[in-house]
Design the sequence.
């Protein structure tokens, strides 16, 4: 199975929370892990704000553990449709479009994805 590990899951993983432990099974498991360029930006911002001393090492880990996917024109077009249909924010719409284009499940605890068929929801 291919999984897109969302920013929410990466942040919980790096924070070492109980939700991060759930994310660990996907990040360190047998699945193929992809990540959107949008996720990379969101996670790096979190690391710069909260784990500055470890930021470079942790972002390298993220990039070496997953396959980063750029935001292509095709993803952008699909994201606009998802935003319109689901009333998501643009970042979440891009994540959803990226996952669909790569036949991946989104590993997240972000409430916007709760109940979505495309998501493996690990939050509460």
Sequence:
């Amino acid at each position: 199975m291919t999984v897109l590990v969302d920013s929410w899951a990466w942040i919980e993983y790096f924070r070492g929370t109980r939700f991060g432990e759930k994310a660990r099974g996907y990040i360190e498991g047998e699945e193929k892990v992809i990540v959107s360029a949008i996720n990379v930006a969101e996670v790096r911002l979190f690391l710069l704000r909260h784990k500055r001393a470890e930021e470079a090492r942790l972002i390298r880990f993220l990039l070496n553990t997953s396959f980063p996917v750029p935001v292509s024109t095709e993803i952008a077009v699909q994201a606009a449709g998802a935003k319109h249909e689901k009333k998501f924010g643009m970042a979440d719409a891009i994540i959803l479009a990226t996952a669909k284009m790569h036949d991946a499940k989104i590993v997240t605890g972000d409430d916007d994805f709760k109940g979505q068929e495309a998501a493996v929801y690990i939050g509460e």
Observations:
- The mean pLDDT is 96.
